[in-house]
Specification:
It is a single chain. This protein has one domain: Nitrilase/N-carbamoyl-D-aminoacid amidohydrolase (4-Layer Sandwich). Helices cover about 30% and strands about 30% of the residues. The chain is built from eight helices and 14 strands. The strands form three sheets. The protein has a six-stranded mixed beta sheet. The chain has a six-stranded mixed beta sheet with strand order 6-7-8-9-12-13, with helices on one face.
């Protein structure tokens, strides 16, 4: 695949109101598809927000009802959908672990998942952590996705490992709060520049009981140029991404050839 038309759904998230959020996400996804989007990215925990007070009720076990609804849309629209939900892992009656489960759906099928490995602040009280970093490979398109979640944007090792594993593009989904919008913007561009790879970053807007959220979702190319910026309003951004551009960038500035992993 040489190019893909990518989209980010920048939405407010109604706290704990799962169906309202899914309906809004699908409405905005339809708009994205009408504009030619083939890959659609949703914010972190787009269907519930950090609904800790109802976590037992709103968390999901396999086969994940929220993902099943998105599968139907993905199949109808022949598109890729990326986001995260609250997962419930029940090992026995006395052992339940909740996780922030990233997912990638391709043409109606769950192509892969990723458990957030770096919970932030209050999340540590409620969520277990993932124990590995790996890309998600899509069989239909051949695309290799490097997915990371929110706080992980601050850990360059995550994006670098995904890139070294052969990711065609990086995707960061988030509920990144005010007043750290400039951190979000700078880190998002930095991850693209240092890895010489396209980067789709999707953040929410609105507020919850703890924070307000600035949006600033972006589609960034392999040079670090911002192709689309969603600003601070709810809506959809769409842009064509040249997946081959990273090869040109790496030939001109051979960072990966010049790395010294023997000493760092």
């Amino acid at each position: 695949m040489d190019r893909i038309k990518a989209s980010c759904i920048q939405m407010d998230i109604a706290h704990c109101d799962k169906q309202k959020n899914i309906d809004m996400a699908l409405s905005l996804a339809r708009k994205a598809v009408s504009e030619g989007a083939e890959l659609i990215v949703l914010p972190e925990l787009f269907s519930t927000g950090f609904c800790y007070e109802q976590i037992e009720h709103i968390s999901e076990e396999h086969p994940y009802p929220t993902i099943e609804q998105l599968n139907e849309f993905s199949k109808e629209s022949d598109c890729i959908l990326i986001g995260s939900i609250i997962e419930k892992q029940q090992y026995n009656s006395n052992s339940i672990v909740y996780t922030n489960l990233g997912f990638c759906i391709e043409s109606g099928e769950l192509a892969g998942t990723y458990h957030k490995i770096h919970p932030f602040g209050r999340e540590k009280k409620y969520f277990g952590v993932g124990d590995h970093i790996s890309t998600i490979e899509l069989e239909g398109s051949g695309l290799i996705i490097g997915l990371e979640i929110c706080y992980e944007l601050r850990f360059p090792e995550v994006a670098r490992k995904l890139t070294l594993q052969g990711a065609d593009l990086l995707v960061t989904i988030a509920e990144f709060p005010d007043p750290r919008e400039q951190h979000w913007r700078n880190l998002s561009v930095a991850r693209a520049i240092e890895n010489q790879i396209p980067h789709i970053v999707c953040n929410r807007v609105g507020n919850d009981s703890y924070s307000t959220f600035p949006g600033a979702s972006m589609i960034i190319d392999s040079w670090g140029n911002i192709l689309e910026d969603a600003g601070s309003e709810e809506g959809v951004i769409v842009h064509d991404i040249d997946l081959q551009q990273k090869d040109t960038v790496r030939s001109k500035i051979p960072v990966f050839e010049d790395r010294r992993p023997d000493i760092y």
